[in-house]
Amino acid sequence: MSDAVLQRRPPPPTPFTVLTGFLGAGKTTLLNRLLADPMLSDALILINEFGEVGLDHLFVEKVEGDMVLMSSGCLCCTIRGDLIATLEDALRNRDNGRIKPFSRVIVETTGLADPAPVLHTIMHHPYLMLRFRLQGVVTVVDAINGAATLDAQEEAVKQVAVADRIVITKADLAQTSEQIDAVEALRQRLHALAPAARIIEIADARAENLLDAGLFGFEGKLPDVERWLNAEALAESRAHQPAHHGEHNHHHGHGHVHAHDPNRHDARIRSFCLTSDRFIAPGTFDLFIDMLRNVHGSNMLRVKGLIGLTDDPARPVVIHGVQHVFHPPVRLDAWPDGQRLTRIVFILRDIEPEHVRGLWAAFLGEPVIDQADVAARRDNPLAAKPSGLLA
User: Fold this and answer.
1) Among 71, 286, 291, 332, which one is most buried in terms of CB atoms within 10 A?
2) Which of 269, 286, 357 shows the shortest CA–CA distance to 74?
3) 244-290 residue pLDDT tens
4) Which of 135, 58, 117, 40 is nearest to 318 (CA)?
5) Residues of the chain with pLDDT > 90: what percent?
6) Contact 199, 146 (CB under 8 A)
7) How far apart are CA 308 and CA 128, in angstroms?
8) Residue-wise DSSP of 369-382
9) Nearest to 371, CA basis, from 351, 359, 387, 382
10) CB burial readout 125-149, b (16+ within 10 A) else e
11) Burial classification of residue 34, based on how many CB atoms lie within 10 Å of its CB (0-12 exposed, 13-18 middle, 19 or more buried)
């Protein structure tokens, strides 16, 4: 075979790993641990966030490889086309020498992502299936909230069922005998959902025992996994059929149907980013979070942010919370992107963003304009009610 023919042949498929897990399980923490390993020094990392403003990339340590932030929606929905385009661009740029070579790809999905469409894309896209080798799904599970999450969220069940490796986080927070028994019951439940998956404690998680799990397949997985992917293939074929009478095709065959709003996952779950250029006193901020946690804790699926405090404006505080549980805040040495701006991303269930914005303004002593009233007055000035403050 001639050298010219050999040069035209694509290189061997690049290993591809999906890192998933429900909101607040600890995916970014695990990714930071993995990125410290020389094994990932030339990896391409794709981070997907659900919401209007991305923050996760600020908390991930940079490595020699490239990192792409995709934040136009959840990976199972509006981002899907972007995932294909991003991967195709990365391959084209690598093949043409415009970016440094990468030896593997890791996609960190948003916690709300159904993994089935992601896996279907890599396994069945005509071009990507030739250029990538799906080497496994790593699912992160929160030992404290995991059982309740599996009870309430179908996506969390799917994330576990497709896993080749399951990483349990926060088990060290279980102190009482009842809590320890609950963690053990969770492990047994995880094993029942993913019989062939290897379950690993976060302290033992390393690139070498997570990423090279072998080719992804259905052996040892529940029959539901293959059914989900078959349903995804059917949904894909229907999506390419002409819509009738103005219908807008956007369904995955798993009850997950919504318009292309990147900040809405279903009718109950909303994501938004609270931003403020005013710094807040530490005690006042504690009261703000405590009130939200006490009143709405079970419906605060995820809270993550950079906070500017009056006691040290040059050094922001990072907060992470899942429902009622908040990690101790961490003071950074400086603003990671140079912008001295408080940004808190909320992913909420059955809570309107304006309620949280109004509470924030109240603690800062600021009036808040009713945004719905503003929109109404803009669209129909004669019919709108007089403007006022939020209660």
Assistant:
1) 71
2) 269
3) 444 444 444 444 444 444 444 555 767 778 889 999 999 999 999 99
4) 58
5) 19
6) no
7) 43
8) B-HHHHHHHHH-TT
9) 387
10) beebeebbbbbbbbbbbbbbbbbeb
11) buried
Map out the domains of the chain as residue ranges. 8-229, 270-379
CATH superfamily, domain at 8-229: P-loop containing nucleotide triphosphate hydrolases (3.40.50.300)
**Block residue for tokens 């490796």:** 165
**pLDDT (tens digit per residue) in 67-94:** 565 555 554 444 456 788 888 888 888 8
Q: What is the pLDDT of residues 343-364, one digit of tens each?
A: 887 878 788 889 999 999 999 8
Class of 270-379 in CATH: alpha beta
Contact 20, 28 (CB under 8 A): no
Report d(CA 139, CA 167) in Å as an integer.
6
Tokens 């799990």: give the residue: 213
- Per-residue pLDDT tens digits for 104-115: 889 888 787 777
Report d(CA 374, CA 281) in Å as an integer.
30
Helical axes 79-95 vs 115-124, angle rounded to 10°: 40
- Quote the tokens at residue 181: 């028994």
Please work out, in degrees rounded to the nearest 5, the angle formed at the alpha carbon of residue 228 by the alpha carbons of 226 and 229.
65
**What HEC string does 47-104 produce?**
EECCCCCCCHHHHCCCCCCCEEEECCCCCCCCHHHHHHHHHHHHHHHHHCCCCCCCCE
- Cα separation, 329 vs 306, in Å, equals 10
Once rounded to an integer, what is the mean pLDDT over residues 234-249? 48
Number of H helices, E strands in the chain: 13, 13
Length of the chain (residues): 391
Alpha carbon of 322 to those of 54, 286, 326: distances in Å?
17, 16, 6
Helical spans, DSSP H, in the chain: 3-8, 27-35, 79-95, 115-124, 128-131, 146-152, 154-161, 177-193, 207-210, 223-239, 282-296, 353-364, 371-379
Identify whether the C-beta of residue 144 lies closer than 8 Å to the C-beta of residue 69.
Answer: no
Quote the DSSP letter at residue 188.
H
